[in-house]
Amino acid sequence: QEKKIFTVQGPYPVIRSLLRARGWVERKLPSTGRPLSSPHPPNEEEEEEEEERWDEDPDGIHDLMSRLVRDQVPYFIWTNRHGAVDCRLLRQDQVVNHYARVGAFTTKEGLCLNLRNLPWFDQADPDTFFPRCYRLGAVDERQAFIEDFRLTAARSLLKAALERAGDVPAGTEQTPKSGEGPGERSHVHHTMLPTAGPGPPLPPQLVEEALQACEQHLGSLGHQDIDGDPPSPRMTGTDWDRFLRDYYHVVHEGAGLALSGAQQERCRALLRRLAGRLPQLGMEGDRNVWILKPGAKSRGRGIVCAARLEEVLRLAGSCAAPSARVGGWVVQKYVERPLLIFGTKFDVRQWFLVTDWNPLTVWFYRESYLRFCSRPFSLRRLDAARHLCNVSIQKQCRPARGRHPRLPPDQIWSCQQLQAYLAQVGQAGAWHQVMVPGMKTAVVGALRSAQDLVGSRKGSFELYGADFIFGEDCQPWLLEINASPTMAPSSAVTGRLCASVQRDTLRVVIDRRDDPTCPIGAFELIYKE
Fold first, then answer.
1. How confident is the model over 67-76, as pLDDT tens digits?
2. Exposure b/e, 335-365, CB count within 10 A at least 16 = b
3. Range with the poorest average pLDDT among 28-32, 164-168, 317-321, 323-327
4. Cβ atoms within 10 A of the Cβ of 367, count?
5. Residue ranges making up the domain that contains 269
6. Does residue 199 sit in helix, strand or coil?
7. Which of 299, 334, 369 marks a domain boundary?
8. Where is this region: Disordered (predicted)?
C-alpha cells in the first residue's frame, strides 16, 4: 500500500541497500539479468563490470520478499540504460531514473548541433564554454570546418611569428583571474619553437597572407573595411593548400620566419582585435590541434588528435564505414593551453541531476573528482596517454618513468585535493569564483538548448556526468555529458563519491517528496524555471 516496491537493473549495490534500509522491497528481475534486453545505447557509459554477487542476504529474507512481490508493480525503477524501460508503458506513479531522447545533449553529435541554438534560449554564448565543433558527416559543416582550420592556421602563424620575435600577443595570453598563475606556464611554452630553424627563413609574404586572411575574417565578424583600403583578393583553395604547407614547416618543423617591424605591429593589433571577438583565441594555442571523436561512443574509444587538415579528413573518411555513420564523426578544437597539475593534464567529472524538464529543474553536485593522464602533457606527441583522461583509456597506459611524486598513483583526485593544490599555487579563489560558476553556466546552457527535444515525463529523473577541462585561466570547457555515468568505484576517491552521490540522489527524488525540508547532502538547486 505504501508503494515501496523497487527494481534495480545493473551494478548498483548502493541503491539496493539504501532502498532496503528505507523499508522498500525489491521485485527482482528474471535471472537473465538483462530484462527487456536492448543493446546498449552508445551514449551511455555502460559499466564494464558485470554485476557482482554482492547480495548480502544470508537468510534468503530478501529473496523470499522478492518472490512475494513478483506480481506487483515496481514504483521505483533504476536501470543502467535508458533503453531498458519503455516509458510509454509506465503508470503515472512509477518513478524511473531516465528520460527519453536525451541524445540531444548526451551524444557528441547532439551537443555539437544543439548548443548552436543556445542564443535563441539564453544570453549565454556557447563559444565561451564549448570548444567549437563540427559534424564531419554534414557537407556544409565539413566545409565550415575546413574554413575554420585555415583561419586558425593564419591566426596561429601570427602568434608563432610574434612568439619568435619575443613578443607575446595581447589577448592570447591566458592569465588567471586572481593572484598569481598556477606556476605551470613553463610546461605549456615548451611547445614554442626557436627563431632560427632548419633552412632559410620563409618569405615575409607568408606573414602578409596570414595578416590579410585575418583582416578579412575580422571584417566578416562585423568590423567592415578595416582601414578603408580596397579589399585584397581572397585566397583560393590552392593558395590555402600552399599556405598550410608553409605553416606546417614553421610550426611543426621549426622553419625560420622573417617578420618586419611594421608586420609585427600589425600582428599585435590584429590579434588584440580578434581577441575581443573570439572567446577561444587564448585556449586554441598555435599548433592547430583538433580532436576527432566518433559521435556516439563512450569511455574515450576511437578518439584521436590530429594537427594537419588532410590527416583529420583522411581519418574521418577512412572511419566513415556504414557502421560508423550511425553516430557520425565530430571534430572539435583541442584545448591546447589547459591548466596542468605537475605538468600533467586532467579533467573533472561533475554530476548533476534533472528532476523535471518542464519547468526545467537542475541540481548540481558540490563534490566532483579529477582524472589524470598517465604521461606529461606535450603537444609534440598526440598520444592518448598524454591527452585523454578517461579512466578506461588510462588503465591501458603505463605511467611515465619519473612521474611527479605528488601525482596520485590511481590517477584520481577529489575536488578538495584540487582546491588545496590551487591554494598552494596562489589560486585559492579559483575553484569557487571561476571554475564552479563556469561549470554551472555550461550545464544549464546545454540543458536549455536541448530542452524541447527531450522526452519529458513527470515522475522521472536522471543523473548525468559532465566532463570538463580547464584553460590556464581556470575557465571551464565542457567536453561532453554522459547519461548513466559510471558508479563503479575505480579508486578510494570514486568509491566514496559514487556512494554519496547515489545516497543524495535518493534523498532528492524520494525523501523530498514527503518532506521538502529533508537534508539533500551535497546537491544544490541551481536552476528552476
1. 776 778 899 9
2. bbbbbbbbbbbbbbbbbbbbbbbeebbbbbb
3. 323-327
4. 18
5. 132-168+201-226+233-334
6. coil
7. 334
8. 29-57, 166-203
